[in-house]
From TrEMBL, chains A, B:
Annotated pathway: Amino-acid degradation; L-phenylalanine degradation; acetoacetate and fumarate from L-phenylalanine: step 6/6
Domain named Fumarylacetoacetase N-terminal: residues: 29-125
Gene name of the record: fahA
A matching Pfam family: FAA_hydrolase
Required co-factors: Mg(2+); Ca(2+)
Chain positions covered by the region annotation Disordered: 176-196
Domain Fumarylacetoacetase-like C-terminal: 139-429
Any one Gene Ontology molecular-function term assigned to this protein's record: fumarylacetoacetase activity
Top-level taxon: Bacteria
Record protein name field: fumarylacetoacetase
Coiled coil: none
Native organism: Aurantiacibacter gilvus
EC numbers, comma separated: 3.7.1.2
Keyword entries, A-Z: Calcium, Hydrolase, Magnesium, Metal-binding, Phenylalanine catabolism, Tyrosine catabolism
């Protein structure tokens, strides 16, 4: 696998959509796919370009796009599952759209297909059949492990097995949908019996979402060398967690109600094509860590399998919004905090024969950088809820309160290339 | 909630489909729904009646069924999700079909819609979006707990929380599809490092499948008193498990590859209507066990929330089949081994706001009776693989070998009512 760059990565390329040029998220070099609607109800496919979405259904009706006609038909459906089922389909379409949006000659025909982003509703990009959440953030796993198992923070399997569990797909919502605080059982440290009520330790988790493109048949594993070709792209994921419910329920079968009340994902699928300039080597494992088993080890994947993407998480409390204060940055860190590559997650998931399908969502798990200011959750920032953090307006938080909005962003930035943004993953807590 | 019996439960009722009368599984009092095809590819809805399936698409095209016309239209789709989305739809249709199949006057029109069961392929009844596996078999949980945690078999949360986890829906297959032995990481007791290879401790799990009918909106829990009305019906579930993979991977987030390579479900959705005569009181909890928390406690549910259904599991090895030997019964037990009622599982699942959807599958977890001969898995029968069991032909087993077929059946039987069968859940292991 060599990472091939093409004309779509040319940093000098500009679009006749002027807001795209120098846009922090959506220059013409990005062209992430999503699903939008004007009525909030009936979505279909689009790409983001500057301050607009390009309506792919209207484009399909407007233009003879030659050899991408069939691909465009799939992209215009109500979800992107069909588009990413076609081998190479999204790549080809992205290249064609790049041509249409950079060449002034196409402007007259294409411009009527633009809709201001401010006027549209974004929907989930895929019909997500299965959602798997991994646990690749080794610093997060260590921090959480210390809280739940002080004597045994990182279990012996962690450095061999890409630990993951099946999540709930029905409760995944797109950025912007409010999150209702869940109720459930909790066991107070000094209590004889559990009690029932709203979670008092509601938290966010800063993750990245990896979308499966091409799937595999049941019983047919995906070799590590082919795994990255099964990835459609990435988004930002907030895997909301009720820590008090989690502590009481999670043994022995893992988190359940603590996580299944809601997960929030950003609307744009930023393709692996758009991110090609930002592929980097997987950071070397610390001295003494075991090498991955052969089914997880591929030289090319080690050389190019990580992504140089930066993530940030902000909070905006109700009081801050009333006062007109800007959101406050809680932490930031790199996606390279993953102990396993994306391809290793795919290969591991399928190695026993489990079939992946287009639109399956793989969460990276909370990514904590391991440095001060790089904590991916409040439970880490507040040391298990023992040390409240203080916001600029004097408010304090150990966990989330009603009215708090959590805003995550992510981007890739590098000299010699256009900055590629992932947009926002945000939601407000309601009681 | 009083359990109302109606004309469809009359044990004296007979059908003009003669094979249905006295049929051990599919008398006219049952009429379970399923999805069949003639080509193995394009299924649609049917019900089982004796040795036949009644083709609901053809019936819809043939007959003016009056007020059930719209319901029949949904039942004729490629999955049953639409049918069970209609409040009361399946109940009404079952009553109408009962009339058509008992009254000789309808025979001439309806008979052409029958297809011999031996000539059809059965498919999954639902598009299963989310699959949750519970752990309600307290005897199983105790037996397994002893193997994984000798000092701490039943964790403190077990009697308060209906323990469950999210499973993999993509790898659920209907009865009859061969199961490929999974490979994965295992850690030998005396090893320094894990090794990779085919599972050596492949096991079945005897469970019942509970199908969700009506769903709920995200953020809107289902009260315990309404929970049973959200259940469409039940089937038999074999949640195949690779015990060696499970032991190494399951901490701290639960089973993953050990369970997601394949699950097998029987094709027929036996409705709660058909099972109404077999609803019984939830067995009282052992002295000293805590009462369920209020959100899980409903007097009617305690009085009628359990099902008097018997389950059986058989093995048929390749040698047995070659010799023409009948399958050998490994164990049997009652569905009342559930520590929680079906309604309690539904109410718990949704109490934090998680939305259930039509066609979601809830597994009961392995049901072990607590008596000799009632073990729901091989790991229990073979005492953790330490005491091989001997089959009638002299073969021994600790875990499943390639060529072994596991066959599960279940039925409800009671004086004064027709016996209601669930059919079979079977699959053979291939290497």
């Amino acid at each position: 696998m060599t990472i091939e760059l093409d004309f779509t990565h040319d940093p000098k390329a500009t679009s006749w959509v002027e807001s795209a040029n120098g846009h922090p998220d959506f220059p013409v070099q990005n062209l992430p796919f999503g699903c939008f609607s004007k009525d909030g109800k009936n979505p279909w496919g689009c790409v983001a370009i500057g301050d607009f979405v390009l309506d792919l259904r209207k484009l399909a009706d407007t233009l003879d796009v030659g050899d991408t006609r069939k691909i465009l038909h799939y992209a215009a459906q109500s979800t992107l599952n069909g588009l990413f089922r076609i081998p190479g389909g999204a790549s080809k379409l992205r290249q064609r759209l790049f041509e249409l949006l950079t060449d002034e000659a196409h402007r007259a025909l294409v411009e009527p297909c633009l809709v201001p982003m401010a006027e549209v509703h974004m929907h989930l990009p895929f019909d997500i059949h299965d959602y798997t959440d991994f646990y690749t953030g080794i610093h997060h796993a260590t921090n959480i492990g210390k809280l739940f198992r002080p004597d045994n923070p990182l279990l012996p399997n962690y450095k061999y097995v890409p630990i993951g569990y099946h999540g709930r797909s029905s409760s995944i919502r797109v950025s912007g949908v409010p999150v209702k605080r869940p109720s459930g059982q909790t066991m107070a440290p000094d209590a004889d019996e559990p009690s029932f009520g709203p979670s008092k330790r509601l938290d966010y988790e800063l993750e990245m979402a990896i979308w499966v493109g091409q799937g595999n048949e049941l019983g047919e594993p995906i070799p590590i060398g082919e795994a990255s070709s099964h990835i459609a792209g990435i988004s930002i994921l907030n895997d909301w967690s009720a820590r008090d419910l989690q502590a009481w329920e999670y043994q022995p079968l893992g988190p359940f109600l603590a996580k299944n009340f809601h997960s929030t994902v950003s609307p744009w699928v930023v393709t692996m094509d758009a991110l090609a300039p930002f592929r980097v080597a997987q950071p070397p494992r610390p001295e003494g860590d075991p090498a991955p088993l052969p089914y997880l080890l591929d030289a090319d994947d080690q050389a190019h399998g990580a992504l140089d993407v930066q993530m940030e998480v902000y909070i905006s409390t109700a009081k801050m919004r009333e006062a007109g204060d800007a959101p406050h940055k809680l932490s930031s860190g790199p996606m390279t905090a993953m102990y396993w590559t994306m391809a290793q997650l795919v290969a591991h998931h399928a190695v026993g024969g489990c079939n992946l399908q287009p639109g399956d969502l793989l969460g990276t798990g909370t990514l904590t950088s391991g440095e001060e200011g790089g904590e991916g959750s409040l439970i880490e920032l507040s040391k298990g809820g023992k040390q409240p953090i203080t916001l600029p307006n004097g408010e304090t938080r150990t966990f989330l309160e009603d009215g708090d909005e959590v805003i995550m962003t992510a981007f890739a930035e590098k000299d010699g290339f256009a900055r590629i943004g992932l947009g926002e993953c945000r939601a407000v807590i309601v009681g």
